[in-house]
Each structure stands twice: as structure tokens, then as C-alpha cells.
Amino acid sequence: MSCVHKKIEAALDRWDESHWYLHQIEEHYHNADALRYSMNAFIRSLREIPDMIAMALQNHEGFPAWHKPIRKSLEKEDFLFSQIIRHRNHIVHKSMLKPKSKAFVASIRGYTIKMQFGFYVDPFEDSDLAIERFIKMSKSNPTLMQALSPDEVQALALVREWHIEGYDEEIIESFRNSWLRVNEYLSEIMVFLGGDAFPTGLPPCFKDSRNFRYKKYHDFQARLYTFT
Ligand SMILES: [Zn+2]
Q1: CATH placement of domain 2-98+169-197
Q2: pLDDT > 90? residue 226
Q3: I need a labelling partner for 4 at 20 to 30 A (CA). Which of 21, 62, 135, 211 fits?
Q4: 180 C-alpha to center of ligand 1: Å?
């Protein structure tokens, strides 16, 4: 079995790398620049996988002809992966990736949103700075904070949602789905080489995306009195 993995070792390593970038996206969800850099890295690494497969197995008997339609169904016919290609070409050849940012200030308990309202946060602004703006604003206009009425159990939170063009879903979800599609593609190759398919579905290290999208600010009271 190990020899099957060995044949496409470099592509599988790139595959692990793209997995690692998915966690970077989660970790940096509220940090605008780090998030964009992690998204760039994910898109680029994921896109390289079929090229690396083609390269590794170009001399493997029967592979190039078998791979052609498999690759086509990933790159041309799969909606999620074709968006990855489009964004990768944009990043590499044209310009920087500009995701769209949507944000809400909210009071939350666990994952339950008790109250929320839209709050404009620029795509280049970190959430910590945005919440500071909100807290400052609420000093002169306390009604918004009163409506949220955060306390020890009901935390003040900034709920953020990033989108990139072409995907309906928020990026953690859409990138996880794109990654799963590549998982299927790699499984087909493993089976062709005489190995086993990879397990389907997300590994357990991928937690509920709300863990990352909802950033709690338990210290908002302290922050409120820090500003003059
Ligand atoms: Zn993981």
C-alpha cells in the first residue's frame, strides 16, 4: 500500500498543505490580511494538485489516457474547482484577492444569537478594531449596546462572514467543499493505482465553522472604560 502513496507523494503532500491552510483560514478569520494570505495559499495549493498528479504519473502505463476525462470533470465540469482555478488565475496573473466582508455585532449564548444588527466592517479591517469602533460609538449612543445587553452569560460578539465571488456559501464552507471534491478526485487515482480510496467526508479536526465566525468579547466592559 505504501508504494501507491509513494508514487504520488508530492501531490499528497500538497494535499496536506492545503488542509493546513484551511485551518489557517479558520484561525485568522478575524484578521483581514492574514485571512487573505491564507485564502491565497489555499487556492494556489489546491489548484496545483492535478498538475502534480499528471506530472508524477506521466510515464505510468495507461494513466495519461485514463486521467484525461477524470481531470476534465474536476477542472472543467466541477463548479467548485473551476472557481478555484478562476481565483488562482486572478491572484497569479492579475491582482489581489478582494473578499467581501459582512459583519454583525451580536449578543450570543453558545451558538445562539440573542440579538444582532449589521455593522459595516471594511474588508481590510480587523475585527478587534471594528469592535473598538463599536464600543466607542456606543459610549455616545448607548441604545445599541442596551439593545444587545451583553453580560456574563450572553457575550458581546462580532459575527463575521467572508465571501468570494462565485461561491454562494461563506468561505470556510465553500473551501471545505472544494477540498472534499479534490479528496474524491485523489481517491479515484488511488483506486486506479490499486490502493484504497480515502475516507469520505471531513476529518474530525474540522469543527463547526461558527467557532471561528463568532468572535466573543467578554472584556467589553473593561474596553468601554479604557477609551476616553
Ligand atoms: Zn485538520
Answers
A1: 1.20.120
A2: no
A3: 21
A4: 13
State the Cα torsion 28-32-37-43 to the nearest 10°: 80
Q: How far is the CA of 190 from the centre of ligand 1 (A)?
A: 21
Note whether 227 and 169 are within 8 A (CB): no
Distance 21 CA to ligand 1 centre (A): 9
Give the separation between CA 199 and CA 213, rounded to whole angstroms: 27
pLDDT band at residue 161 under the 50/70/90 scheme: very high
Reading the block at residue 67, the C-alpha cell is 486521467
Domain residue ranges of the chain, discontinuous segments joined by +: 2-98+169-197, 101-162+213-226
Other beta carbons less than 10 A from residue 174's beta carbon: 19
217 Cα to the center of ligand 1, angstroms: 26
